[in-house]
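Predict the 3D structure for this chain.
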Amino acid sequence: MTLLSIPLLKKPSKARIVNVSSILHLMGKINFNNINLKGVYGPNKSYAQSKLANVLFTRELAKRLKNTNITAYSLHPGGIRTDLSRHMISSPNEGLFGFFQRNFLIDIELGSQTTLYCALEESLDNESGYYYNDCRRINCMVPNAKDDKSAEKLWELSEKLVNLDDKYKI
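Done. Predicted structure below.
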């Protein structure tokens, strides 16, 4: 979907692509031999892999869009108090989880700040491909999150999986 929007994003003088990832990318590992985790699926493993994929996609996208008007960023929005837990437990507002949610998670307004920062902060105009947390660029990334060979391999695999038309390849 991102690549389909590139022609439109090239029209203004500058444009940004902001990918929401998660700090849980730290636990991710891309399983290239079984990208959909068939037979070994677990929600935590899958989530961590997908969030690492977001970080790697952003790195590779930034490389491919170098010397254009488009920049790309990935980020961790924070632990946000949403109703996502409704899928995990029967009474998300009760018990230990309810206590944790009320006392340790942030509200949606605060959780949107890093996304807004990456979308709007003018000082980021000349940066691209980086990961942000709490409105700060994170330079010390785990090896899996800065593996450019894996980023390129994931990109190429993704192009094949979605059967990307040559006119959208960058």
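The two ends are 13 Å apart (CA to CA).
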